[in-house]
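Need residues for this backbone.
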């Protein structure tokens, strides 16, 4: 009987430790789209050729635009309007836009133009 306990005890300890490790694992990633959905952005960026229009639900405080090579294309402060449009004057296709809204939140986005 003592020999049987000596063989079962290590097996029980191993099983128990496996259960504890599995219980401490990270939770599974969300499976539904509602769980992983990001909040909607309070603005939209519309492009038509080299014409860019930014429309926001809140007033836009400032706009900055850089090319993919790091050259600053535009910096406009004190926009104080819910929409802003401008024309790209360089022959590049990828740009980065930084918006600051009136509530102080800052957003940045990469865009491409034709």
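Answer:
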């Amino acid at each position: 009987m003592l020999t049987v306990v000596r063989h079962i005890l290590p097996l029980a300890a191993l099983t128990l430790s496996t259960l504890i490790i599995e219980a401490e694992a990270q939770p599974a990633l969300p499976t539904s789209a509602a769980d992983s959905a990001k909040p909607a952005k309070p603005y939209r960026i519309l492009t038509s050729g080299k014409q860019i229009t930014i429309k926001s639900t809140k007033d836009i405080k400032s706009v900055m635009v850089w090319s993919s090579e790091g050259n600053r294309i535009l910096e406009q402060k004190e926009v104080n309007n819910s929409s802003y449009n401008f024309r790209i004057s360089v022959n590049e296709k990828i740009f980065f836009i930084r918006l600051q809204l009136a509530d102080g939140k800052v957003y940045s986005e990469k865009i491409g133009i034709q």
